[in-house]
C-alpha cells in the first residue's frame, strides 16, 4: 500500500505554530479513506452496498511536532481483523523520515439497519481482501 501524503496547512496550526493535536485524527481518517480506495473498497462503495464502518476508539501517541508547511507520509496497515471488527494502525513520518505520530483506530461493520455485519456473509470479497492484508502484514 502506498502511503497517504498530507501537507500541513497553516490553518491547522495552534498558537505555538505547530499542528494542533486534533488535526492528526482528521489525517487518520483521510488516510483510512485512501487505504480503502487503494483496496478497491471505497467508503461510497461500502455504503452503497449497505455497510458502514463507524469508529469505536482512537489511540494516539505524538512523537514530534509538525509545522506548516511540512509534509507527512501516513503509513496505514491493518493491525487486526475479526470479521465484524478491525483495527487500523497509522504511522506518520516527516520528510526526514522521522516518526511524528503513531495511532490506531478501532472500527466495526454495521448493516443498513445498524446491526453488526459479519463481512464473510455480507461482503465475502471485502472479507477476503482484509484477510489477505492481515496475512501479508500490510
Task: Please tell me about this protein's structure.
- The protein has four helices and five strands; from the N terminus they run βααββββαα.
- The N and C termini lie close together (7 Å).
- The longest helix is centred in the first third of the chain and has 17 residues.
- 29% of the residues lie in helices and 30% in strands.
- It has 138 residues and is an alpha+beta fold.
- It has one domain: Thiol Ester Dehydrase, Chain A (Roll).
- Strands 1-3-4-5-2 form a five-stranded antiparallel beta sheet.
For the structure shown, list the relevant keywords.
138 residues; alpha+beta; Thiol Ester Dehydrase, Chain A; five-stranded antiparallel beta sheet
Summarize the model shown.
The protein is of the alpha+beta class. The protein is built from 4 helices and 5 strands; from the N terminus they run βααββββαα.
| Beta-strand fraction estimate | 25-35%
Q: CATH homologous superfamily? A: Hotdog Thioesterase
Mean of residue pLDDT values: 96
What is the spatial order of strands in the main beta sheet? 1-3-4-5-2
Helix-strand sequence = EHHEEEEHH
Overall number of strands: 5
State the name of the first-level CATH class. Alpha Beta
What is the CA-atom radius of gyration, in angstroms? 16 Å
Percent range of helical residues: 25-40%
Ends: how far apart? 7 Å
Remind me, CATH topology? Answer: Thiol Ester Dehydrase, Chain A
Largest sheet features: 5 strands, antiparallel
Structural class: alpha+beta
By CATH, the architecture is named Roll
Amino acid at each position: 500500500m502506498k502511503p497517504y501524503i498530507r501537507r500541513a496547512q497553516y490553518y491547522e496550526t495552534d498558537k505555538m505554530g505547530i499542528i494542533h493535536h486534533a488535526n492528526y485524527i482528521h489525517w487518520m481518517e483521510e488516510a483510512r479513506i485512501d487505504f480503502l480506495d487503494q483496496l478497491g473498497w471505497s467508503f461510497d462503495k461500502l455504503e452503497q452496498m449497505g455497510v458502514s464502518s463507524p469508529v469505536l476508539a482512537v489511540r494516539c501517541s505524538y512523537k514530534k511536532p509538525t509545522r506548516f508547511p511540512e509534509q507527512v507520509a501516513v503509513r496505514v496497515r491493518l493491525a487486526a481483523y475479526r470479521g465484524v471488527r478491525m483495527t487500523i494502525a497509522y504511522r506518520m513520518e516527516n520528510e526526514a523520515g522521522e516518526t511524528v505520530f503513531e495511532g490506531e483506530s478501532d472500527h466495526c461493520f454495521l448493516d443498513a439497519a445498524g446491526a453488526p455485519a459479519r463481512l464473510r456473509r455480507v461482503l465475502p470479497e471485502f472479507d477476503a481482501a482484509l484477510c489477505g492484508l492481515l496475512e501479508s502484514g500490510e
